[in-house]
Amino acid sequence: MPLIDVQDVHKVYGHRANLVTAVAGVSLQVLQGEFVGIMGPSGAGKTTLLNLMSTIDRPTSGQIFLNQKNVTYMKNAALAKFRREQLGFIFQDFNLLAALTVRENLVLPLTLAGYSVVAINQALQKIVGILGLNSLLNRYPDDISPGQKQRVACGRAIITQPHLLFADEPTGSLDSKAATELLRYLTIINAKAGTTVVMVTHDAFTASYCRRILFIKDGQLFAEIVRQGSRQSFFQQVIDMQATIGGGGRTNGASAPGF
Ligand SMILES: Nc1ncnc2c1ncn2[C@@H]1O[C@H](COP(=O)(O)OP(=O)(O)OP(=O)(O)O)[C@@H](O)[C@H]1O
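Above: inputs. Below: predicted complex with adenosine-5'-triphosphate.
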């Protein structure tokens, strides 16, 4: 049974003369425990597709099942609960709350969900251990580096032990060292905790950490590649596919590959 089942999904934005078809009939499945990347040229529909899969946005037509639940027409309150309990999100701009300490930011999803103090502290200790955040707990987001912020954002995303983690350009604001650290953490979470990861990225080095990559062009699935050999050879496959698909695969500071 797939954890994510996307069935002929379309997303059209705008009205009348200004219609933009961002996703044009995508069907895909993601299995429990996969680490899947979504790549493609700028404007191809990657973020829209991720937002649809992660219930942030709703499709114009088609259906989406998460963990065998049809989330397409789920009411907002039920969807918010489902999101809180089952999903984690990492965004490029971190979305940390500046007025809260690192500790408060990390436990926010548990506080909102009404967990007990004991349960919150247990979960916090585990996350702090995995992500090496101990020395940062009493600091504020404005007083830590972008890489540290991203680790906190990652911690906040996984503290609820979500089945599914969605990440949109998670390394986009990071230098190559911080990007590599974050990608290693994602790999650990994926391998050890069995968290399924779906990640949008422009960056071939970042993508090389995935096991499978879906390439999107003009709102449709263009190609798929699966990692079989080393990460380095997969990196090369990604670069080749970016050249084939055209339209602006870019490499950024995170791309100096440290294989
Ligand atoms: N809220 C919106 N309203 C109108 N058009 C939108 C909206 N969001 C996205 N689009 C359009 O849908 C298309 C796909 O956008 P999307 O952001 O999903 O692409 P992307 O592949 O993630 O691009 P990028 O790599 O540049 O972030 C684009 O033409 C975009 O302008």
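DSSP finds eight helices and ten strands in the chain.
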